[in-house]
Design a protein that fits this description.
This is DDE-type integrase/transposase/recombinase. With 196 residues, this protein is mainly alpha-helical. It has two domains: 79 residues, no CATH class; 63 residues, no CATH class. The protein is 58% helix and 4% strand. A two-stranded parallel sheet has the order 1-2. β1, α3 and β2 form a beta-alpha-beta unit.
Length: 196
């Protein structure tokens, strides 16, 4: 009896592994479980040149003229603004400096910065228990699952106990494991639909 039970459990675990891999692939949009090539990449170093700019291509499709980023006082955001301006993508940056509203910009935009800071604290609280990752694969998997949990499954106090992305099929389920299973199933259905 025990060998049969163990065999069944191993098959179930293998199936769940495939389901999770499929969900993660859906969420990040590429095959993250493909083995990397063994041959080293020998590209010459070119100062201040970027080979692939998928975010540039995405931003060019948006109406970025009305895009405003609310950031803290770190100067890296201004550097990023200059980088994108070189690619003819212009946007505004509002810097909220310090902990008090010493200027009109901080007064107006501080609530938006506080939303991001709250998200950062939530992410750090979930990440802390992992004690880091031994590979990029582990960190990408964690972030992907965190995003799925945060947006589709986790109730938010600021939203009166609701989730940010409401899916009626998930609302009817009694507990979190059932919701995770349904979310994974929906992801699998979407992939099958895309392949048809």
């Amino acid at each position: 009896m025990y060998p049969q039970l163990l065999t069944y459990l191993m098959e179930f675990i293998k199936h769940q592994d495939q389901v999770i891999r499929t969900l993660l692939t859906l969420l990040i949009g590429k095959g993250m479980f493909d083995k990397p090539e063994k041959t080293p990449v020998n590209k010459p170093y070119r100062k201040l040149q970027v080979d692939d700019l998928p975010i540039i291509e995405t931003l060019q499709k948006l109406d970025y003229r009305v895009l405003t980023f609310v950031v803290d006082g770190n100067p890296i955001y201004l550097l990023a603004q200059h980088f994108f301006a070189q690619h003819d993508i212009h946007f505004d940056i509002k810097q909220v400096i310090g902990l008090t509203n010493e200027d009109p910009v901080s007064t107006e935009y501080r609530p938006l910065k506080q939303v991001i800071e709250r998200l950062n604290r939530t992410f750090k609280g979930n990440y802390r228990s992992t004690h880091g990752f031994g590979s990029e694969h582990g960190s990408v998997s964690f972030v992907t699952l965190f995003v799925a949990y945060f947006n589709f499954l986790r109730p938010h106090a600021a939203l009166e106990g609701k989730v940010p992305v409401v899916n009626p099929e998930l609302l009817q389920l009694p507990n979190m494991p059932a919701r995770w299973s349904k979310l994974i199933g929906l992801a699998q259905d979407w992939i099958i639909e895309q392949l048809a």
